[in-house]
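for the recovery benchmark. tokens below, seq after
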């Protein structure tokens, strides 16, 4: 299902990032491409699956290839995973 969400945390060293989906849940993902992503970016695409996906930046129309590690998470779970 297509969803929209906001990038809330980016770990530039690992390429991992967290999205807050519009339903309030969090998605943990990893960038596969080299196009930089920043906290505050708004993205759309499939966020309720695991595996390789392409998310679109709403404001700039950029395409981001990502690997979705997990979805339906709490903020605490995402923060713990990014610190590990």
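predicted aa per position
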């Amino acid at each position: 299902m297509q969803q929209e969400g906001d990038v809330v945390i980016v770990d530039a060293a690992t390429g991992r990032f967290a999205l807050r989906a519009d339903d309030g849940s969090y998605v943990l993902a990893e960038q596969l491409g080299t196009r930089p992503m920043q906290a505050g970016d708004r993205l759309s695409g499939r966020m309720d699956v695991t595996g390789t996906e392409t998310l679109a930046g709403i404001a700039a129309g950029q395409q981001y290839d990502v690997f979705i590690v997990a979805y339906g998470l709490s903020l605490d779970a995402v923060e713990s995973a990014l610190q590990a």
